[in-house]
Amino acid sequence: MKNIGIKLAAVAFLALAPSVALAGKGGSAAQIKAAVASTSTDAIIAELERTESLICDECVQIVTGLTEDSRYEVREVAAWWFARRPALKDMLAAQFSDDLATGGTLKVRNAADFLGGTKTYAALPQLRAAIHRGDLGSDAKLALVRAAGAIAHVRGNEVLSTAMADGDARVRGAAVTAWRDVLDQPSAQPIVALLADPDADVRARAATVVGGMTEQSARPALEAIVLHDPDSFARRNAAWALGQLGNAASRPALVQASADKSTLVRGAAKAALSSLR
Amino acid sequence: MKNSMKSIAIGAAVMTLGTVGAGCGNGGPSDDEGPLGGVESLIILQRPKRNDGGDIFQYTSYKPGARLVRLSPPTADGKLTTICCDQGGSEFSTIDISSYDISFDAKSIVFAGKLADNQRYGLFLLQLSDGAITPIMTDPGRDAVSPIFLPGNRVMFTSNAVVEAGAPQHVDEYERGTTIQLGTVNLDGSDLQMGPRNLSHRTFPTLASDGRVVFTQWDHLGPENSGHLMRVTPDMQDLREFFGKEGSSPSNSTLKAREISPGRFIAIATARSRTITSGTLIDIRAGIVETHGGVVSAPQNQSEANATYHILTPDVPMDGAPSADTVGRYYDAFPLNAKDKPDLLVSWANGPVESGELAAAGLSANFGVYLYDSEHQQRRPILDDPEMWDIFAQPLRTRTAPVVISSAQDPKLGGQTLIGSLNVYDSSLHTFKDGEIYGVRVMEGFSSEEGFPREFGTTLFEGHANLGVAPIAADKSWSAKVPANVPLHLQAVDVFGMSLFNEPVWFSGRAGEARMCGGCHEDRTRTTNVTPGQLDTFALGAAPLFGTVARSARLNKTPATATDIVGVGWDTQIQPMLTAKCVECHGADNKAGIAPYTITDMATGTVTSWTFNLTGDPLPAALAVAAGDGAYSSSYFSLAGPDMEAIAKAKLLIAGNFKVYMKPEDARSSPAITKLNPTRLFPSPSTDRAFATMPHLIEQGRADLTSKEFYALILSCDMGVNYFARENKPAATAP
Prior knowledge:
The complex is a heterodimer of chains A (about 280) and B (about 725).
Chain A: H1 29-38, H2 41-50, H3 57-66, H4 72-83, H5 86-102, H6 105-117, H7 124-131, H8 138-151, H9 157-163, H10 169-180, H11 189-192, H12 200-212, H13 219-228, H14 232-245, H15 251-257, H16 263-273
Chain B: H1 13-17, E1 42-48, E2 67-72, E3 79-84, E4 96-102, E5 108-114, E6 122-127, E7 133-136, E8 144-150, E9 154-159, E10 181-186, E11 193-194, E12 202-207, E13 213-221, E14 224-232, E15 240-243, E16 253-261, E17 264-270, E18 280-285, E19 288-292, E20 295-300, E21 308-311, E22 329-335, E23 343-349, H2 355-360, E24 368-373, E25 378-383, E26 388-395, E27 416-421, E28 439-446, E29 463-471, E30 478-483, E31 488-493, E32 499-502, E33 514-517, H3 532-541, E34 543-544, H4 570-581, E35 597-600, E36 607-610, H5 621-624, H6 634-640, H7 644-648, E37 654-656, H8 671-676, H9 696-699, H10 707-718
Parallel strand pairs in B: 27-33, 30-34
Antiparallel strand pairs in B: 1-2, 1-26, 2-3, 4-5, 5-6, 6-7, 8-9, 9-10, 10-11, 12-13, 13-14, 14-15, 16-17, 17-18, 18-21, 19-20, 22-23, 23-24, 24-25, 27-30, 28-29, 28-31, 31-32, 35-36, 35-37
């Protein structure tokens, strides 16, 4: 558990009874403890949401422990809880940022999920450095990608582009999806190469991103997917993407795809045909 | 688990169903048939039971194994047939389905389904004649849920896709979820259009017989934090309040509305979180109630002000409290007739139906389908699979499609939205003094998705950008051309630029939409008529308020004059002024000798003291918690005060010389503003003062604030006393 190392201010709350006006508020350290003891992810999430605004010394200690829980959903809601308390968040973020450089896979995973969940922009250099470490497992790299996606800043692009070359398809796929939602992302050009990824899910995700960002240079690869890819989700997404690009030159491919064996592809191709200029 | 029905000991159910409606007039089928008389079968959605959908805006929950079933006849011993989606093959083998709607001719069903864990929810059309399933293509990287049929072969749905290309979708006020907004698409997947954006969620649309759509909108603006019913045309324009705002609802949230008869709706009343989107049943009458032949409706003068409601299940909690045994909670309801006390098809679960309590016990709510006789408050079981949520039951039968209605879009607006009102003094919420309004300030809202941490300050307000003030004309009207599709917030302001009255909600309009109101929240029982000629006049005279300026450019880091100010960054725009003109007396050494206040921990007796300090120094760690744990400056804490929500609820134990010097949305009564006594700003700056008191800086023999500095402080107050604005967003300086 992290040593937060601060003496919390002396602020007392009377019991916060749930009320109509306080939907989502209330809760107590005892209720968080009970939820943790239940081992139920849903109960923990529910209790932390309920203590969104609760000022409670004991809660801080409990929730700090949850930032290193084995379940992503629990780590995520713990980070969210601290994000509502920026001063505490900053203290923890400094420690977690250090973990990115020296920690093992689990520590890096936990650190990245905290820093992403709290949208800690200051941690971007450490996130960029960590993705280049050769000693991290996929769990850590997935978390680094999640963090870059949550922060959604172009200075996290290096994390994503590096992850796109990872040996684990889950890491590549997550990086591809995160690319699209980076604020003011200038181009989907780096994604085009992923349309030829050996993993079908990565290809499907890449098709969605280049379509969503109307990356015109992706058209030939998308047409190849829509006609020849063995995976129906990849073909469907490629058909949708061609509709987004709207280039009339894609008509032959989409007409052919309109007779695809998969109803998903046929439906997407027919809709895409109506979008061509 | 397919079709693993639990045996229900309700042998008398068929006979019971036949007698429920006895003596109830013509509010439905004949007395002999009962409320389900003439109904050959029901369509029911069965989802594997779960416990991760506690939040009313949870739309991503996924568990494979959902199915659409037909129960025929619609009785407990009826035959249950799966109609979707086994026939779809392997692509549909792990589908989850979140909701559906039956077409007007009862020949097809539109549903929202998620095919696998790595997919998003999308829309599908099921033909009941042959079981064929076709996708209604939406963005495969976004979710599309809650589809309903619209007349004209279109479907309305909600989605986390964004109407503005390249823009990130808003996150909700809890900063945990991506918001969902309204969209429409043709049944063949063509012509997909996303509607203008609310700052939080819009969900559960339903079609009314007058052709308009009623849905739940979450409103969060300062103290407002609730979800109520709104109404739009099917082209997602002409947004109007429908039910529940301004304290007119019995609950925090009203959702899953369905029309009983014209102007009358059944809905779920509940709290936002932990309720698994279930609660009590309320019968809403939106207009003047009339009864003809046993049918109760409320079609005339529908408005929020005229709306009344009846609670049909009075024992069920409307807040987040766990429900009692045998009381349970209702997930949804479908009206079978329009009697004063209607018969309903409902989904109901026994027990607490509270996600935290259920989760802690390792349980899930078990929704089953029941026939509910609201007159006698009796439930009769129809279907309950213990492994599934049996929800959204409705008769498979034709219904009349309403006429296609739409509202105009003016190409002359060039992609902007025209807003305004005929007489800004006309308000049902506030009485203005004649002549006191100079104009209407229009502010844009945004959340942390634009590159902010998850809080904008201690006051729990979203990000604000001042788009400017539209002056009122001699006839008391005003109009402005503003950016389309973005959340907007209005304030009537005086000649000093201070808010006189604050509209407590966000609204938005589509590109080319003209949204002219009668007044400033005028009497909602009246109808406002604006002629096309008036619209043209308003458009010609409309104040240009960033209507054609890109989102990324709607800021000004170096405003030359007061009226150039867009956003107010605390450290970049407020602190330099404080440092230059205030800190000499109000620094850490407290030369001014202002008495401190204390915050006491009643449990430990620990007392922390704070003294007014307008420096940009970081807060002492001991006070970070009192500042909502904010990592803000001493000046921000001194002026904005501790966590406003905590103060508002009187939960903090504070003693001594305590004041909140800058009040959110209320510059006019903020002590910092009244003490400094701002000078007149509109229509042009002058030395006239807002208050009849000696301006503090003049009194102290110091240089006064400039009009730009005054307005920065005023805007900071009236836009929520945030620490962050686009002008100082942390992402802009990310390393």
